[in-house]
């Protein structure tokens, strides 16, 4: 079941019916609440911080539970990783007839801890929606946070089909794509595609601290792209990296070996074979990035056209309107300002077969393209 799309519904749970209780009203918990409520599901909230729970409620993610509320059909644990096992165990005891899932970004450690404690895991299904933002908290929550994102569902042979189907229904209702993995497969995968990049981005961003203001002023989109996730919460990431340390350390060791080879070749570029080693390492990066899925998880690649826009109100809106009028679908958009100039660059990703026509039509309408 490695990375396979689930097929557990089979006439069981086509949609979420009944009350859902969310424990942990931060970014993920509040986003789940917002998304489910948008589809008519009743959501109640709980958080260790009363202020956080009230804030999420104010944003419309749900309401506080009352003694009159029935037992929920589903309990979603959206707490920090270091307390997930405690909260899941308590939820299974408090709501014995409810399905319980957690959405932590590490799956094996909580599962093993629950087993070590002898907790009855019949109604437990670990899961992980691959959605997030650099900033956390209910204030950053979005109902569409999980749209077109993978939602990993972990189960074993003892997981009831109805429980699995309910988690799948939640994922589908929130616009995600449910996939099945074992906890081990999940942790190894996210160690490579999520946790290792976080470590690298943070370390790279840390190298900016001793740099001069003059040097930082030259920073462009490339640096912003590679350090964007470094703005994430350090306390949360200490928990995540510690809980998934083996795959991350393995990735760091491999990266360190590549860095050493790259550094040695660059230190003595005239040495025999040095330029070849540099080229091979850079080319490996090109091949690697080509494997990253594109829009909506497809492997389709896009062509980028760059349009110069004046730095004044309405210009970007005008450009997007022109693209719509021309019948050109924009797959992605990135903006960059030119340092010290009243001009910006709009990098627009389009399908390769329409790129040439897009450039010609925009140029004909007075836009400057690169």
UniProtKB/TrEMBL annotation:
NAD: present as a keyword of the record? yes
Residue span, Prephenate/arogenate dehydrogenase domain = 18-300
One Gene Ontology MF term: NAD+ binding
A Pfam family this chain is assigned to: PDH_C
Q: Which residues form the ACT domain?
A: 304-370
InterPro entries given for it? ACT_dom, PDH_C, PDH_N, Preph/Arog_dehydrog, Prephen_DH
Q: Which UniProt keywords apply?
A: NAD, Oxidoreductase
Q: Which GO terms describe its biological process?
A: tyrosine biosynthetic process
Q: Which NCBIfam families match?
A: PRK06545.2-3, PRK06545.2-4
Q: Which PANTHER family match?
A: PREPHENATE DEHYDROGENASE, PREPHENATE DEHYDROGENASE [NADP(+)]
* Protein known as: Prephenate dehydrogenase
Q: Which organism is it from?
A: Leucobacter soli
Biological classification of the source: Bacteria, Bacillati, Actinomycetota, Actinomycetes, Micrococcales
């Amino acid at each position: 079941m490695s990375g396979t799309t689930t097929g557990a519904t089979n006439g069981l749970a086509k949609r979420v019916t009944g009350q859902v209780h969310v424990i942990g009203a931060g970014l993920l918990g509040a986003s789940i609440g917002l998304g489910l409520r948008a589809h008519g599901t009743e959501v109640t909230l709980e958080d260790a911080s009363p202020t956080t729970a009230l804030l999420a409620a104010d944003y419309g993610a749900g309401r506080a539970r009352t003694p009159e509320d029935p037992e929920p059909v589903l309990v979603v644990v959206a707490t920090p990783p270091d307390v997930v096992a405690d909260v899941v165990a308590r939820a299974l005891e408090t709501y014995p007839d409810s399905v319980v899932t957690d959405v932590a970004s590490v799956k094996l450690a909580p599962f093993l801890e629950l087993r070590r404690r002898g907790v009855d895991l019949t109604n437990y299904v670990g899961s992980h929606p691959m959605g997030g933002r650099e900033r956390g908290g209910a204030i950053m929550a979005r109902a569409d946070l999980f749209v077109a994102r993978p939602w990993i569902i972990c189960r074993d042979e003892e997981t009831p089909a109805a429980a699995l189907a309910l988690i799948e229904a939640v994922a589908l209702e929130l616009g995600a794509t449910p996939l099945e993995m074992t906890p081990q497969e999940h942790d190894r995968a996210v160690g490579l595609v999520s946790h290792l990049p976080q470590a690298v981005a943070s370390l790279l961003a840390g190298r900016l601290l001793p740099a001069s203001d003059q040097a930082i002023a030259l920073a462009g989109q490339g640096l912003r792209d590679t350090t964007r996730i470094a703005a994430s919460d350090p306390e949360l990431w200490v928990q995540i990296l510690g809980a998934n340390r083996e795959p991350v350390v393995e990735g760091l060791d491999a990266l360190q070996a590549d860095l050493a080879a790259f550094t040695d070749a660059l230190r003595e570029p005239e040495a025999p074979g040095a330029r070849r080693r540099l080229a091979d390492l850079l080319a490996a990066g090109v091949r690697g990035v080509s494997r990253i899925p594109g829009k909506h998880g497809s492997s389709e690649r896009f062509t980028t056209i760059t349009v110069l826009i004046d730095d004044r109100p309405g210009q970007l809106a005008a450009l997007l309107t022109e693209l719509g009028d021309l019948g050109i679908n924009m797959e992605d958009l990135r903006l960059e300002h030119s340092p010290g100039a009243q001009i910006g660059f709009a990098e627009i990703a389009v399908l390769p077969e329409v790129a040439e026509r897009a450039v010609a039509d925009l140029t004909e309408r007075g836009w400057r393209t690169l």
